[in-house]
Specification:
The chain contains 7 helices and 2 strands. The chain is mostly helical. Helix 1 (4-27) runs antiparallel to helix 5 (92-111), helix 1 (4-27) packs parallel to helix 7 (133-155) and helix 2 (40-49) runs parallel beside helix 5 (92-111). It is globular, with a radius of gyration of 16 Å.
């Protein structure tokens, strides 16, 4: 079970990684990722849109607790496309700033979640089974972010 300190540390680790790559990201925002059709800036748009996913997980928790079936999710491809399109006019710097601001909001939101709620089980979402709220925050937040940062870092020139 992920606790408050672990979640906050994991988010801060993502921010530190972004800070370490900051200049290289700024210089290479239009670089294509090695797989798929996204560029560095598209991955950042996606991360910015998901910067504070705590409310999304808590909404799933509340719906589960109330016995309200979750709405059928749109396809991940549609969601990702919209996240990128909504930020197409932003600069790479603005996207980076939005990611970091979202992370600060996520840290604040996590501090307001009780230890008991972090331990509650909810449907895992796109996967079968259940997951604890705290683990869902980690999976959809820092773990997810590191995966996309791995893709970005792979196409950046060395320091």
């Amino acid at each position: 079970m992920a606790n408050h300190d672990q979640i906050i540390q994991a988010i801060e680790d993502v921010d530190n990684r972004i800070e370490e790559m900051w200049d290289r990201i700024l210089e290479n925002g239009e670089t294509a990722l090695a797989e798929g059709t996204w560029r560095v800036r598209d991955a950042l748009s996606h991360l910015a849109a998901r910067g504070n996913g705590v409310a999304r997980v808590l909404a799933r928790y509340e719906a589960h607790r109330a016995g309200t079936p979750a709405a059928a999710p749109r396809s991940i491809d549609e969601i990702n496309h919209d996240q990128v399109a909504e930020r197409s006019d932003k600069s790479v710097r603005e996207l980076l700033d939005e990611v970091l601001a979202g992370h600060q909001a996520a840290i604040k939101a996590v501090r307001d979640v009780s230890r008991e709620i972090l331990r509650e089980k909810i449907p895992a979402g796109y996967q079968p089974g259940e997951i604890e709220v705290g683990d869902s925050i980690m999976r959809g937040g820092p773990y997810h972010d590191h995966g996309h940062l791995d893709q970005v870092e792979a196409v950046l020139p060395p320091e």
